[in-house]
Amino acid sequence: MYGKGLLKGLSVTLSRFFYTYWDDLVWFWRRITKGKRRYYSPEGIAHRSSKEARGIFTVQYPEEKLPVPEEFRYLPFLVYDEGLDGTKEIRCTSCGICAKVCPPQCIWIVRSTDPATGRPRPQPAEFYIDADICMNCGLCAEFCPFDAIKMDHDYEMASYTRTLLNLDRLLKPASYYASIRPLNAAREEEARKAKLASKAAKAEAKAA
Amino acid sequence: MIAPDSTTTIDLVARFPSVVTPDTRPGYSGWIVDPAHLTEVATAIRNEFSYDLLSSVTGVDYYPDKMEVVYHAYRTTGGPALVFKVQIPRHNPVVPSVTPIWKGAELQEREAWDLLGIRFEGHPDLRRIFMWEGFAGHPLRKDWKEPFYEEDVKPFKSRWPEGKHLPAEMRTPLQDNLFFPPGFDPEAFSFQDPDQAAYEALRRQHRPTDEDGIQTDVIIINMGPQHPSTHGVFRAAVMLDGETIIGLKPIVGYLHRNHEKIGERNTFLQNMPYTDRLDYFNSMSNNFGYALAVEKLMGIPVAERAEYIRVIMAELSRIQNHLVWFGMMLNDLGAMYTPALYAFEERELILDIFEATAGSRMMCNYFRFGGVARDVSEDTLRKIHDLVHDRLPRKIDEMDRLLTENEVLVSRLKGIGYLSAEDAIRTSMTGPMLRASGVPYDIRRADPYSIYDRFEFDVACHPEGDMYARYQVRMDEVRESIKIIKQALKQIPQGPIMSVKPSYQIKVPPGEAYGRVEAPKGELGFYIVSNGQPNPWRYHVRAPSLINLTSLEMMCIGEKIADFVAILGAVDIVLGELDR
Fold first, then answer.
1. CATH code of the domain in which B474 resides
2. DSSP 3-state assignment of B3?
3. Residue B164 touches partner A, C-beta closer than 8 Å
4. Is the ipTM of this complex over 0.95?
5. pTM, rounded to two decimals
């Protein structure tokens, strides 16, 4: 029969239309009984991006935001450890691996030198990342041997001018890093501790 | 005619003594053919040895003495490549064209002329393809330098240890890399319409029919580059007799950024994120092809778990590509956005998985030489499991119900844009386009790479050769991909994800390699030449989007102009890959 396929197709759109409102009713019931809301709530967003999602699929950005997974990467930032007296202990040693591995070559590092001896110090004097050039590939974070440069989760970076990130804007505390990437931070911390322990054991063995 | 059998080794030297010599450079393979006899040898390769599918034609600039043109030919019955090359002096690079033998070489030879300045004699329409007529120089030649040129290869010395940041626009482009064509006089310069050459080519090749004795006039219409149907900045100069298409020339290059030149400046690893930007729908497949080519050169194995992860990711990418294709195809036909947005729901879930594993939704940059960048968590594997066992089959059935029997869709697709199997092979069509013409050629089966030989799946194939067949092939392929992922999830072992220590300085021995994968849009190949340096000497992408356009004219001739939109949509092009 001509038109059967059309009707079959239309039944799909009709059921989609129906489910949108049906799900609203279901969630209305949940709201009454369990206090769970379909919109503007974490469980509502999680439901809409799960395999059970039916009907409305969209998320009302910026009122609602999708949670970003741990591995999500945006722009790089530099990690510093907070010293006991509040000093910033920058992990970066200005070894230049990130600048070398960077595909669009958007990292500029000025190595600092000791004013007394004139010899290079393992600390960056300046660190620039041209955010307009950065392609968010994450290779700098992947190959940094000191866990000093990591990829940030903050993606709301729109600005009226070009964005050049300098050392001030790049530095973020290790606690912030642990908050956005808890699993990675814990794994790296463990590796660092193990390394320190093995070093200490070696030193002890040497002394003994 | 020798029976096509992939196990017989071809001995071209025995067939053509003194014309063909084996390529004995270390790390190289194949045959070197005397340019004067290329046509004769190529005809024999096609007709006697039945290498009917010419996959890739490209040039290499062996600065400073010679140029080389490299051909990769395959049999559509399966098996490895037959590689043959022609060497020519750099100051006068002239090669006989193979376009009369394999029409699929047409656009690729134009590309080699444009970027490397190799002239192909006997080519029906040898014009620049990406750059404009009147452009000075050939960008892929090793002595050509781009504006804002810094150094030959990355990493640039200005970045460390005394890195002075300087925005690109502050650097003057008018330094030592400013070229003028010989005899250029700015005073005497007058502007010439750059499109004239394309229009003339159209007029030369096609004449209006005047069967009834009435001389009719033709018009040339430009579809694009700013046309919503062209999926980006593609343009076609269409020659019309009334409403019927009688000739067509694709005009591309609006998104050209010379990916290959950038690739030669980059180190091997630095190219990986750049491949994401080719076909930005399928960065996983692009990564796959490039990783395969470099691994072949390095001669390293891939970690077992990583192989499975690669297959899962590549197939997920195929599913979302085809789903979006259904949506976009229907957009082209006028069913605005309902199917497209239904497809985007499923794509969203797949991109969530990419985001959780690779860190980015589209620019995945996930593959490394010898494995993948990071492991897939159990949680993500469970998500993939739920998708392929529950949601995706359900949703694909829904898409099927929504579209497949729809009478409007059927009448717009059936019998339109016909391409016969012979023509499809002759024009080097690959992927769903070739399989919709009844040639069951799928690289995953015909020349298995990675671990595809371990999975049970069918090659989707429909013999009709029209657009409805192209639609059905893609529908079947999505289901086959789900099958592959299901098996991969069952078999995936625990273990390391890298077979070698991850490193940013990769030692690649000198030689050449051609890695190809069955990307969702067709055969995606990477031809890489290394000279032992940290950067590739030649990095060529065999882009299915571009080469599948060779037959666009064939499919469009005789159809109405309104169907051009749909025929182009059915090819499934992505301009990021097409223009490179």
1. 1.10.645.10
2. coil
3. yes
4. no
5. 0.90
